């Protein structure tokens, strides 16, 4: 696309600029949005929803050598007219923008910029070419190696801990919202359901995805956002280790009944520490669920501590500082002698 633009420009620089603009816009005639937004050249459409499209784009001044993080981006284009009679969708968009402005973490999707005109909002997001973790698992026949499962859970835990330390909850944690970057690391995305925890500590809005929703949300009760995230995190762990969802039913009412009862089968082949951690998260009683610190202190987590890089050590310590004997012991396991480190 950029080559075509350059070729057209060089031939018509002294010609009809209106004709040039028309030619540029015809390069993607099926997309109603313009092909230039701010410093970004639109390349292709990645997806389309009820209120707009997501497009892959590049900065016009992108460098081949020493590229900047926002040289390649995904631009979520929100049609304001489509939101006019959809208050719930408008609320979700506004909430996502608010949360993205508050967070800045290696395991959370980043928003580089927000551009707006009279008809559209353009959310300039981090481009993650690896796709959804869900698709990777399905491609592998529903199975990950134990090392891969721990890596993705480790990164999810640290990203969620970052949010919880700042009184933010995600409320839609699922494999489809765990997106892989070019290095194969995951970033938690889609903050349309996220919010700040209120002073009273309880939320009432029923949000999220059915297979990952906790009993309180399914019942329509008020709930603790941290505990809701803990349940969803447990469901993710279950899938990472088994390749299956813990709660499955064709009928939604049957599914919700199973969720409310905490009725699922624990595979006997899972090691006891993994089973204990899953039970500590997928617990029908919200107040009995482990928080992020409880997860980090669990036997399964400690027993599978990887050999991490100095950069990963810094990310982990920002949310789990070694301020007591246990944490010091944990970090000693996390950080082997120099020269023996490897990427997880």
From TrEMBL:
Residues 40-301 form the Protein kinase domain. This is Protein kinase domain-containing protein. One of its GO terms (biological process) is intracellular signal transduction. Signal peptide: none annotated. InterPro entries: Kinase-like_dom_sf, Prot_kinase_dom, Protein_kinase_ATP_BS. Keywords: ATP-binding, Kinase, Nucleotide-binding, Serine/threonine-protein kinase, Transferase. It comes from the Eukaryota. SUPFAM superfamilies: Protein kinase-like (PK-like) (SSF56112). The keyword NAD does not apply. Pfam families: Pkinase. One of its GO terms (molecular function) is protein serine/threonine kinase activity. The keyword Mitochondrion does not apply. ATP binds at residue 76.
């Amino acid at each position: 696309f950029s080559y075509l633009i350059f070729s057209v420009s060089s031939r018509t620089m002294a010609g009809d600029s209106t004709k040039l603009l028309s030619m540029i816009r015809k390069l993607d005639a099926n997309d109603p949005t313009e092909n230039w937004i701010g410093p970004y050249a639109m390349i292709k459409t990645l997806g389309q929803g009820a209120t707009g499209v997501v497009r892959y784009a590049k900065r016009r001044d992108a460098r081949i050598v020493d590229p900047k993080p926002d040289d390649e981006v995904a631009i979520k284009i929100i049609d304001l007219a489509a939101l006019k009679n959809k208050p719930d969708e408008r609320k979700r968009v506004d909430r996502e923008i608010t949360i993205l402005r508050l967070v800045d973490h290696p395991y959370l999707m980043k928003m580089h910029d927000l551009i707006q005109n009279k008809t559209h909002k353009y959310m300039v997001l981090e481009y993650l070419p690896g796709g959804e973790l869900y698709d990777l698992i399905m491609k592998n026949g529903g199975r990950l190696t134990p090392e891969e499962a721990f890596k993705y859970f480790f990164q999810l835990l640290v990203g969620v801990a970052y949010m919880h330390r700042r009184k933010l909850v995600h409320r839609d944690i699922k494999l489809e919202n765990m997106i892989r970057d070019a290095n194969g690391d995951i970033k938690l995305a889609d903050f349309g359901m996220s919010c700040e925890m209120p002073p009273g500590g309880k939320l009432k809005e029923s949000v999220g995805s059915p297979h990952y929703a906790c009993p309180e949300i399914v019942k329509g009760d008020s709930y603790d956002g941290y505990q809701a995230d803990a349940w969803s995190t447990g469901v993710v762990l279950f899938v990472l280790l088994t390749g299956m969802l813990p709660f499955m039913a064709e009928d939604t009412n049957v599914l919700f009944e199973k969720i409310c009862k905490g009725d699922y089968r624990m595979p006997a082949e899972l090691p006891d520490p993994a089973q204990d951690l899953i039970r500590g998260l997928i617990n029908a009683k919200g107040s009995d669920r482990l928080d992020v610190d409880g997860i980090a202190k669990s036997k399964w987590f400690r027993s599978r501590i990887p050999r991490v890089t100095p950069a990963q050590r810094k990310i982990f310590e920002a949310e789990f500082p070694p301020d007591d004997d246990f944490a010091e012991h944990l970090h000693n396991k996390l950080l082997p002698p120099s020269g023996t480190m490897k990427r997880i």
